[in-house]
Amino acid sequence: MPFNPFKDAATKAQEEFTRAYDKGVNLGPDKWQDASNSFADAAKHFAEAGNPQKSNEAFALTALFYALVHRDADSWRNCSEAMGRIGDTPVNVGFTASSSAIAVQARVIQEDIIATSAIN
Q1: End-to-end alpha-carbon separation of the chain, Å?
Q2: Which residues have C-beta within 8 Å of that of residue 104, sequence separation ≥ 6?
Q3: pLDDT tens-place string over residues 3-27
Q4: Alpha-carbon span 68 to 91, nearest angstrom
Q5: Do the Cβ atoms of 77 and 107 come closer than 8 Å?
């Protein structure tokens, strides 16, 4: 889909959100950074369109796929915090999952990374 600078923010947001799945999430781990980037763009456009809930959801998905790619404690902390900000929302991560459950799991992964680093 070619870039059209004259589209309204809501349209651009939805296109980026869809692109995150079509060109990222659905293609597997090698494309998850692309998904993260598209979710970030969608979050920005949703905010411009005055849709803070969808903006926060897209940002939380940005953080999740970023953490899945980078796998460091800070990324997982950011993911946990972002998922926590959207409450108990069903999110599509390739399947439907609860944002609150992802927030808890991300915090566990973060703490595991920190503990493992301390032991080593």
Answers
A1: 48
A2: 80
A3: 556 789 999 999 999 999 999 999 9
A4: 16
A5: yes
Beta bridge partners of 90: 98
Q: What is the pTM of this model?
A: 0.91
And the tokens for 39? Answer: 């979710």
> What SS3 class is residue 72?
coil
- Whether the Cβ atoms of residue 103 and residue 84 lie closer than 8 Å to each other: yes
Instruction: Dump pLDDT digits (tens) for 64-96.
Output: 999 999 999 999 999 999 999 999 999 999 999
What sign does the dihedral 96-116-107-25 (CA atoms) show? negative
Task: Give me the residue label for tokens 């349209």.
Answer: 11
